[in-house]
Amino acid sequence: MRPHEETISVGGTRVHAWVGGQGAPLLVLHGAGGNRGWRKWMERVAERYTVWAPTHPGFGASGDAEWMEGVDDLARFYLWWIDAARLGRPHLLGQSLGGWTAAEMATMSPGAIDRLVLAAPVGLKPETGEILDVFYHSPLQLRDLNVHDPSAVPEWEELFGRAPTPEELEVAERNREMTARLAWKPYMHNPRLERFLPRVGNPTLIVWGREDRIVPVACGEQYRRLLPDATLTVLERCGHLLPIEHPDAFARLVLDFLGGKTRP
Amino acid sequence: MKLYYFSEMPHHEYPDEEGAHYPSLRLAFPNRFFDRAKAASNYQRYLTEYELADRVGFDGLMINEHHSTPSCVNVGANMTAAVLGRTTTRAKLLILGNILPIEDNPVRMAEQIAMADLISGGRVLSGFVRGVGVETWWANANPVHNRERFEECHDLIMKCWTEPGPFRWEGRHYHFRHVNPWCLPLQKPHPPIWIPGTASPETAVWAGQRGYTYVPFLVPFDIARELFEFYRQGAAEAGRTVTPDNLGFLICAVTADTRAKALEAGRHFVWRMGPTLRGPLEWFSPVGMRSRAGKQFALKARPRSLASMSYEELVAEHFIIAGTPDEVAEGFALVQRELGIGHLLLEAQESRMDHATTMRSIELMGAKVIPAIAQV
After folding, report:
1. Structural contact between residues B198 and B226, judged by C-beta atoms closer than 8 angstroms
2. Which residue of B has its CA nearest to A70?
3. Is B77:B114 a contact under the CB 8 Å cutoff?
4. Which residue from B44, B160, B194, B265 lies 20 to 30 Å from B179 (Cα-Cα)?
5. Distance, in angstroms, between A142 CA and closest chain B CA?
């Protein structure tokens, strides 16, 4: 089924979104790499849920938001956006930077969302290891660090198989700038988040790639420990971009969880 | 045209092959290669060289600041200015400069510069810079705020110097409720402000609007002229006239008793053109630090990186001037004719250029070059 594009403005900021599927709404928040469009895993999940995949302010096709200074600003913004898009009480799924944003949203307004899926979210300071400094590395280095095994990534050719156009480079640069606005310091985490997470009672699925070289799996354990109703699933032979690296397995986990089957 | 002596205070005290193991000499080259004893004697040596430059008649002593790099271990420009404020007597102390965007307390900075001005009897020329990316990493300052912080830090420092305290400052990046510095510059209303430039047209316009002295560093003449045009644009917007006194330029220069000796000494400048600038783009220009316009101009300003040029090419294009006193005087006059500047900044010591060579060069500059270009 083909998704369509929508633009929904709130608070003076224009947000572009991919929308597709049927069923209860699932809001999907992308990572620092930007909105990669309508992906294979979304196609699967959209069979049973209406997937709303907006592009964060300051990223890609969305408007500027130079006023934002942290992920808490972005989280607050998306709580407005849920209302503006009339999503009711959607399920919320976030990956990496989007996962952190989703977690912040849940701490701000747990009643505004239904179930929560966190895919390798940043946001917590790792008890062991460190979150890779993405700004210190080139986009090409990051492309390779993001996955465990490029040859196993079904959409590799489509996503990374050719040199980016000047327009794509411009977007990538803008995405990085906005990420710096949101997460430069403290780098990719909120020291107070661990105080807030125990107040989030929403059923939560945390998914991590065993070979994640960007955010240590230890952070997954920390999220699981801090969230009262969370399970952690670790995918083997998988890096940081897990929905891209293992789209089928990831979609299955999400569908099972949203359908209620994996409730502890 | 006024001449300024400048040393980066390098710490080239390790085997080069060790440095080559790392992606850059900046940030990544481990400081276990920092030799404390050599650094201690080098600081004495470098300060002695500055003091000689003062005695032989240089108009100014330029001091800069970098961090986390052996290319420059002058990690506190205001500290050096204070020391030289006591040990020199006549030359201006050109701090070029304090790195504003990474400063968290502009009030303290305003006080420190004021104190150096007071100690030196009002000889400070206060340069403000945006810094290279390396300093942004060192300070963990958000590069997307670099220009905003530069401007706001500047505004607060100027307010400290020009408006009576106590006052309050609630900006976007700086917040102080009780500003009342009990240390103000001797020069009224404040020391002259200098701004260097390498590629950013916005900076040139901004400096022109304010009538600050603007100094491109090591760019081809045609690029310097283009930057001066941006400066003139800014000056015109503010109704200011531009004189040579508003414009400066920085090159590397050394002289010796013979041409051969000078050319040999000049080779030490190659280190600062290549090896010390080697490293990932992200380290020197982190995301968001430069505007789109700045980025495009930077590409144009450096069609060829300095690192890719041979020593002979660097000499041919006047990035380095090395020769007998007569020859360097001629070279300096040529730069003046090409650019119409009133200030020529000489990076006059680098890498492993030894003390004796450096001292002799300073001596000859004083005895022969400075008098020769007095009328230029």
Report:
1. no
2. B142
3. no
4. B194
5. 12
